[in-house]
């Protein structure tokens, strides 16, 4: 097993483990509360509107928006970290069939690892105040993953030809 | 099992029959020991994926659209309650919406977690040669993983039905506790696997601890590997497009519709906004479903390429299942995306695509079962 293969397999297992631990933490300590808040704030918006209290209704709708914005991103981070980790492990096993020089293979593996860490990290940071930095990280991370995957596809097809 | 050459003049039927009854080569047989960790992971993984996808099919055909319709009706009732200045009716409508969303969410999660546990099982089957653990430890971890992978989705499924009955914790019910415990079991197994791999990397073992998977250069393997990689790439590109073009637009539009809904409620003009909200939810759902399914099917195709040496079927049938799997993998996401334009016809074709993947998986699983039976018979285990 060569260095690039190890980076993908070892990095993938570590990322899957991290993603699962994050998911377990989120499920136990935050998800139920977030779901209650999403449902509760939307219901409150309608109840207050029925009471003709538009100010409280708008406040509740604003809470709904913010809570749902955070919830969607936190759940996406969990699924994307684990999904990308699984892909890395699979690619690690098949990576010796990617026909490029060792240096290029190493660059592809590092790009895949960096992208798989940074893309979800950028997404979760979008729930903080550093939105610009977060979006930059997410775009850069997803770009790295797409480029690494495209290079892998080319490498596999060269072998297949 | 020597593959046919391109110019082979032998009758295909006779060659296939010969392949199906030939003796399993020793190098391949050594990678699939009786009830060893790898065999457990391969059987369990394919079974979990097939059952998880079949559950998803049942859910999509019989429950998903009905659930969406009921949710729309409940939202309309909430808006009408606002117009009628009846807060208690609005609360009641939202309690119903919450119940419907939990029903839908737990079923989607059941499907996703069962399929993903299957993927992870197939993945772990691949890395077994690189784990510096004893055969007994590997087998124990494999059993724990399959128990956890089976119990986790069952626990998630039960959350909606068990609720908080007899629960010692105010916000988490027994079904959630069951699901979280199974999730913890999967984490423990992964820690064991990473420990074994860490020891392997530290060169405690100079070579793989068991025979590596046979790397046959068959047509089936190449098709699954290349096709799977392209599917994953398509999914990434679609995801990037969705995040860049639609995600924020959908979030903003949802708020605009909800504000309209609350304002129009006073003037009894709600049907249009409820319909717009339903369409928005449908747009989000098809985008996310297409994105996740095309990537998962791509990953599945890559994983199944490794299992092909263990599919003990004639070459014709092996190729047939590969084509059915890849065709279904492409059909489902494309027609899910077309569902908004062409309605139930596209939805039905998408469901057929999913069914094609399930059938191909069951076909391959039958081949693996035949392989295991043949192997055990030859080695005198049975």
Provide structural commentary.
Chain A has 4 helices and no strands. Chain A is mostly helical and about 160 residues long. Chain A has one domain. In chain A, α1 packs antiparallel against α2, α1 (about 5-50) runs parallel beside α3 and α2 (about 55-95) packs antiparallel against α3. Chain B is mainly α and about 375 residues long.
The radius of gyration of chain B is 25 Å
What percent of the residues of chain A sit in helical stretches (DSSP H or I)? over 70%
Compute the average pLDDT of chain A: 89
Number of helices of chain A: 4
Shape of chain A: elongated
Largest interface: A-B, 54 and 66 residues
Form type of chain B: globular
The main β sheet of chain A shows up as: none
Number of domains of chain A: 1
Give the oligomer, counting copies of the same chain as homo and different chains as hetero: heterodimer
Total E-strand runs of chain A: 0
Compute the separation of the termini of chain A in Å.
24 Å
The tally of strands of chain B reads 0
Residue stretches of chain A low in confidence (pLDDT < 50, at least 5 long) are none
- What fraction of the residues of chain B are assigned to beta strands by DSSP? under 5%
Provide mean pLDDT of chain B, rounded.
84
Q: How many angstroms separate the termini of chain B?
A: 22 Å
Helix-strand makeup class of chain A: mainly alpha
Secondary-structure element series of chain B: HHHHHHHHHHH
> Uncertain spans of chain B, ≥5 residues at pLDDT below 50?
1-21
Number of domains of chain B: 2
Compact overview of the structure:
The complex is a heterodimer of chains A (161) and B (382). With 161 residues, chain A is mainly alpha-helical.
Topology:
The complex is a heterodimer of chains A (161) and B (382).
Chain A: H1 3-50, H2 54-94, H3 102-125, H4 131-160
Chain B: H1 12-21, H2 26-29, H3 37-83, H4 87-127, H5 135-162, H6 174-201, H7 219-265, H8 271-307, H9 315-337, H10 339-342, H11 344-379
Helix pairs in contact in B: 3-4, 3-5, 3-7, 3-8, 3-11, 4-5, 4-8, 5-6, 7-8, 7-9, 8-9, 9-11
């Amino acid at each position: 097993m060569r260095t690039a293969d190890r980076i993908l397999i070892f990095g993938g297992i570590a990322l899957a483990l991290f993603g699962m631990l994050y998911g377990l933490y989120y499920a136990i300590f935050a998800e139920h509360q977030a779901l209650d808040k999403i449902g509760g704030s939307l219901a409150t918006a309608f109840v207050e509107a029925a009471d003709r209290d538009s100010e409280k209704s708008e406040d509740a709708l604003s809470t709904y928006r913010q809570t749902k914005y955070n919830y969607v991103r936190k759940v996406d981070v969990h699924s994307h970290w684990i999904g990308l980790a699984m892909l890395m492990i699979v690619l690690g096993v098949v990576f010796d069939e990617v026909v490029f020089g060792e240096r290029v293979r190493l660059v592809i593996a590092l790009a895949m690892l960096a992208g798989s860490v940074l893309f979800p990290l950028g997404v979760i940071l979008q729930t903080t105040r550093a939105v610009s930095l977060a979006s930059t990280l997410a775009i850069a991370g997803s770009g790295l993953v797409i480029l690494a995957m495209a290079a892998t596809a080319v490498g596999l097809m060269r072998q297949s030809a | 099992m020597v593959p046919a050459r391109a110019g082979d003049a032998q009758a295909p039927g006779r060659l296939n029959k010969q392949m199906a009854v030939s003796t399993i080569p020793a190098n391949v047989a050594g990678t699939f020991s009786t009830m060893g960790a790898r065999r457990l992971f391969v059987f369990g993984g394919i079974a979990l994926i097939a059952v998880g996808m079949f559950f998803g099919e049942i859910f999509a055909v019989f429950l998903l659209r009905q659930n969406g319709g009921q949710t729309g009706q409940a939202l309309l009732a909430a808006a009408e309650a606002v117009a009628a200045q009846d807060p208690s009716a609005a609360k009641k409508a939202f309690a119903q919406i919450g119940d419907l969303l939990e029903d839908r969410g737990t079923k989607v999660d059941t499907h996703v977690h069962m399929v993903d546990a299957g993927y992870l099982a197939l993945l772990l089957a691949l890395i077994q040669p690189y784990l510096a653990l004893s055969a007994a430890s590997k087998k124990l971890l494999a059993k724990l993983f399959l128990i956890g992978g089976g119990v986790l989705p069952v626990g998630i499924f039960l959350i909606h039905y068990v609720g908080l009955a007899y629960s010692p914790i105010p916000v988490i019910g027994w079904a959630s506790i069951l699901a979280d415990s199974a999730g913890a079991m999967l984490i423990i197994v992964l820690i064991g696997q990473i420990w074994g791999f860490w020891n392997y990397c530290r060169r405690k073992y100079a070579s793989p601890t068991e025979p590596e998977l046979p790397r046959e250069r068959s047509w089936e393997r190449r098709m699954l590997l290349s096709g799977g990689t392209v599917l994953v790439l398509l999914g990434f590109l679609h995801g990037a497009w969705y995040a860049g073009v639609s995600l924020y637009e959908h979030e903003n539009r949802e708020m605009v519709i909800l504000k309209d809904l609350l304002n129009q409620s006073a003037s009894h003009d709600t049907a249009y906004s409820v319909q717009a909200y339903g369409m928005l939810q449908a747009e989000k759902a098809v985008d996310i479903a297409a994105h996740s399914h095309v990537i998962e099917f791509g990953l599945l195709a890559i994983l199944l390429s490794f299992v092909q040496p263990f599919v003990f079927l004639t070459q014709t049938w092996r190729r047939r299942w590969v084509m059915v799997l890849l065709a279904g993998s492409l059909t489902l996401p494309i027609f899910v995306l077309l569902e908004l334009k062409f309605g139930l016809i596209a939805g039905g074709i998408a469901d057929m695509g999913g069914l094609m993947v399930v059938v191909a998986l069951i076909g391959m699983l039958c081949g693996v079962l035949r392989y295991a039976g043949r192997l055990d018979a030859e080695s005198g285990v049975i």
